[in-house]
Amino acid sequence: MGAKIDRTINNGSSPPIFRIHGQNFHRIGSLIPPNGTYPKFAQLYIHDTDNEIKNRIASVRENIATQDLHAEVVEDIKEVLDGNNVLVKSFRMAKAEIERNPRVEIKMRLIGKRTKDARTYNLPTTSEVAALIVGDLDPSIGHRDILVESNSGVLKRITELNPSYLPLQYPILFPYGEDGYREDIQFATNGSNNNNARQRISQREYFAYRLHERLEEISTILYARRLFQQFIVDAYTMVESARLIYIRTHQKSLRCEALKGLTDALTRGEVQASTQGKRILLPSSFTGGARYMIQNYQDAMAICRHIGYPNLFITFTCNPKWPEIQRYITKRNLNAEDRPDILCRIFKMKLDCLIKEVKNGELFGPVKSVIYTIEFQKRGLPHAHILIFLKNKVDMTSPTYMDSIIKAEVPDKTMQMKYYNAVEEFMVHGPCGIARRNSPCMVNGKCSKHFPKRFVAESKFDQDGYPVYMRRDNGRTVKKNGIELDSRYVVPHNRYLLLRYKAHINVEWCNQSRSIKYLFKYVNKGNDRVTAEFYNSTIDENGEEVVDEINMYYDCRYVSACEAAWRLFSFEVQYRTPAVERLSFHLPDCQSIVFADDENIDNVLGRETVGQSMFKGWFEANKKYEDARSLTYIEMPNKFVWKRDI
Fold first, then answer.
1. Which tens digit of pLDDT belongs to each residue from 461-498?
2. Contact 24/3 with Cβ under 8 angstroms?
3. CA dist., res. 476 & res. 487, Å (int)
4. Average pLDDT over residues 613-628
5. Which of 30-44, 213-227, 335-349, 558-572 is the least confident region?
6. Counting CB atoms within 10 angstroms of each CB, which of 61, 141, 254, 561 has the fewest?
7. How many CB atoms lie within 10 A of CB 478?
8. What is the b/e burial string over 215-243, where b = at least 16 CB atoms within 10 angstroms of the residue's CB?
9. Considering the domain boundaries, does residue 547 fall inside one?
10. Nearest Cα to Cα of residue 386 among 569, 558, 572
11. Mean pLDDT (whole number) for 375-382
12. How far does CA 77 lie from the centroid of its chain?
């Protein structure tokens, strides 16, 4: 792997997590290093400088020299791999051939195309996996094959679609050299085949299959602990990389220009479509991209315009100590961080249960709309930001109603023991400030979350409309890290949700005016994204300005094991109800047209549908239908459906 690993978070203060930054590459070196040198594994750190590489090499050597390695365990693993792993056998054969004929140039070809049906899951044989090549290259080598030279001294990038990649990268997880993902794995279908349906499984489906435990199958992968974290992150980056490569290589099908612009170009004599439009390098259909986040923000604002302001903002965080998780991992002698897939699946079930309860209307009253987005903490745990729109009530804006659903005090320990214990465990911030100046929330000597709050005898709204929750000075305290903390450190919450879900679940009353835009941008901002430099450009070798949004996406993303598992399972990252119809509008003859890069402009302008648009359809409906004349453009989808002619 050639990703830049974020090592700053594993400082011993919490369970270890595997987290990468930037783009992930997969490379392989030569069979033997050049004379007098070490294997160039350090080049895998593709973002590191030369000094950093030297420091890493020195650190690895020092660790090997000082650590008490279990030589007998290493020897056992070596013997098992030598005797059973076909890839290891292939490299041993290459080694023997090099030692027997040191003057002959030896190359090893790792074959990317298998002859047997992948659905049978037979263990591969050595002849299927690899072939030794002496002298000239075989012209029949496939584009998915990996060619390993004996003494090249460089690292070559290999394709993730080669079935040998995963067993080469993770020999302990694939002890027999079993194939990883292959492009020709077909669905195990029963009954008649639909010719129009997809016949082969995708990378994401393959990894999702491997991440599920089966009683009749012992999975080495699921018991690999920290290596399992790396495997999941690697798997997701492979899937995402394939999607981004497709977008990069199909840019000609993403050209877009205004109708008037194409007409003017034809007048100037420019008939090739490749000279028109701008490249949409990362479209809004790509989950997690900047356009995706912006459109979700705009959709949320559209719901706000139609329904009104949101009433509640809930942050729901996964609790690795949930009894469902503990029962599962205890039976397998694992820790919660060893199974990020289980954390995500349990959290998804509880989140769905929470959303169902809220929408039923029994908790906070009738609900008009729900919006949530999933993010992942620096430590990797998933959490949801949820906005809830309630139906209007006469007393909804009163402090009394706010007190009935939101609490921010230490409860009575003698009268409400379970509630007290839950607040103590999940809903107390800190200690920070004078009591603990090195707390993670401290910035410039002050708490970034503005704790401790002040004591307030009763709830109210300040002059800007922000809620001030009741925190009475009644002498009740909780002990956290040996320090007594009072109600000023309690995070606002709902008593029922806290006792039911036993997790950090912050419930806040929304300010009804000034903070709405910030709140919606915060909910839809995405995980660890830096969009401020989204439109930064570079200059290519021809001196032309180039905006590469795919590279910008790579530069500002971090991927941890929980996020990788969530995305591999194809769980929702953004959720909203009701649905939003995106309406387009434009000046005369300036509607957008999508066309292929190699299409003739005259042919594009000759389409019958070239002048159609949703906006123009609204004008036509006003001419034909009397009901349409009473509807604004925004109200139109409530009564009419726009159908483009084909």
1. 888 778 899 999 999 999 888 888 999 999 999 999 99
2. yes
3. 7
4. 84
5. 30-44
6. 61
7. 21
8. eeeeeebbbbebbbbbbbbbbbbbbbbbe
9. no
10. 572
11. 84
12. 34
In which band, very low, low, confident or very high, does the pLDDT at 242 lie, cut at 50, 70 and 90?
confident
In a domain, 279, yes or no: no
Written as six digits, the tokens of 513 are: 């005016």
Domain that holds residue 79: 19-160
Count structural domains, the chain. Answer: 2
363-385 b/e (C-beta count within 10 Å ≥ 16 → b):
bbbebbbbbbbbbbbebbbbbbb
Rounded distance between C-alpha atoms, residue 356 and residue 396, angstroms: 22
Q: Is the CB of residue 485 less than 8 Å from the CB of residue 431?
A: yes
* Closest of 511, 571, 586 to residue 304, by C-alpha: 511
Angle at 506 between CA 502 and CA 511, to 5 degrees: 160
Cβ neighbours of 391 (radius 10 Å): 14
Query: 599 with 593: CB under 8 angstroms?
Result: no
- Global pTM reads 0.83
Q: How do 478-480 and 382-390 pair as beta strands?
A: unpaired
Specify the 3-state DSSP secondary structure of 244.
Answer: helix
Question: Is 542 inside a domain boundary?
Answer: no
Which residue among 476, 503, 523 closes a domain? 523
